[in-house]
Amino acid sequence: MITQPSLSHAISLLENELGISLFEKDGRNIVLTKYGKVFLNNVEKSLEILDSSVKTLKLIGSGEGKIQLAFLRTLGTDFVPDITRKFLETHSEKSIEFNFNTIATSVDIIQGLKERKYDIAFCSKIGKEQGIEFIPVANQELVLIVPTDHPLADKNSIDLIDTIPYPQIFFTSKSGLRPIVDDLFTQIGKEPKIVYEVEEDQVIAGLVAKNFGIAVCPNMPILNSMDLKVIKISSPNFERLFYLAMLKDAYLAPVVHEFKNFVIENTEI
After folding, report:
1. CATH architecture of the domain covering 4-61
2. Which of 89, 105, 137, 179 could cross-link 267 (Cys pair, CB 3.0–4.6 Å)?
3. Equal fold, 65-137+242-265 vs 142-239
4. Main-chain dihedrals φ then ψ at residue 81, nearest 5 degrees
5. SS3 assignment for the chain
């Protein structure tokens, strides 16, 4: 318990530091000055924030809290909703939330991880990123899409070399798919006629449907509802891999670490 002289000395030191009086006499009583009341109000608010922060960190330490998850939009219709719902159901006794961040390209996702905007992510693998841990968790077939009235629309499967005469829509260099598609054409020793370069696969599909060109893209559920033909690529055959990505040396909160392990245990390539 603090003594009266010690308290008076502490108040005097504080008033000297602030350059203003916090207390004044009111008859026989000592009361707060106008500025003392302002200071008290701010101190109480600060203590409330501190107390709330302590409670939040204790919850995070016990395996609860919010997970900042980033992912490619193409994974937002099935994979991400499925794996996150299963995780929440198996941890229903805890207060866990996801903040879903849909990002156009894997390059932007990786940059967000580096800037600590996201805890963990689902994206394509970027080869030169030595500071990122990539764990394969899902795959996706690559197909050729063409307008319904295109000369290739009567085919159900195709050798990629048969696409060379036609204008093609490609992913931009920022996309994790670009080197994969480039490699497919390298394998057949041909240069495609690239007329447009686009970041997002849904946009590519929309352009194909309106006769801007043909394209190699992931076999997404949305393709079935669009005015275009989906054709299986018989040669060269390739499946796109998606990865769980996180910083190698970054601290993972218990809830993020639990989610990482859950994804690894519940996904098969």
Report:
1. Orthogonal Bundle (1.10)
2. 137
3. yes
4. -60, -35
5. CCCHHHHHHHHHHHHHHHCCCCEEEECCEEEECHHHHHHHHHHHHHHHHHHHHHHHHHHHHCCCEEEEEEEEHHHCCCHHHHHHHHHHHHCCCCCEEEEEEEECCHHHHHHHHHCCCCCEEEECCCCCCCCEEEEEEEEEEEEEEEECCCCCCCCCEEEHHHHCCCEEEEECCCCCCHHHHHHHHHHHCCCCEEEEEECCHHHHHHHHHCCCCEEEEECCHHHHHCCEEEEEEEECCCEEEEEEEEECCCCCCHHHHHHHHHHHHCCCC
Catalogue the long-range contacts made by 153-156 (C-beta closer than 8 Å, 24 or more residues apart). Answer: 153/229, 155/231, 156/231, 156/232
Task: Give the right CATH number for 142-239 from 3.40.190.10, 3.20.20.70, 3.20.20.10, 3.40.50.10490.
Answer: 3.40.190.10
The tokens of 213 are what? 């060109």
Contact of 227 with 148, CB cutoff 8 Å:
yes
Residue 67's pLDDT is 95
Domain ranges for the chain: 4-61, 65-137+242-265, 142-239
**CA–CA distance, 15 with 32 (Å, rounded to integer):** 12
Instruction: Output the CATH code of domain 65-137+242-265.
Output: 3.40.190.10
| Res 7: pLDDT | 76
Tell me what pLDDT residue 74 has. Answer: 84
Chunked into runs of 10 residues, the chain (269 residues) has average pLDDT values of: 78 84 84 87 85 66 81 90 96 93 92 96 90 93 96 96 97 88 94 95 95 94 93 88 93 92 90
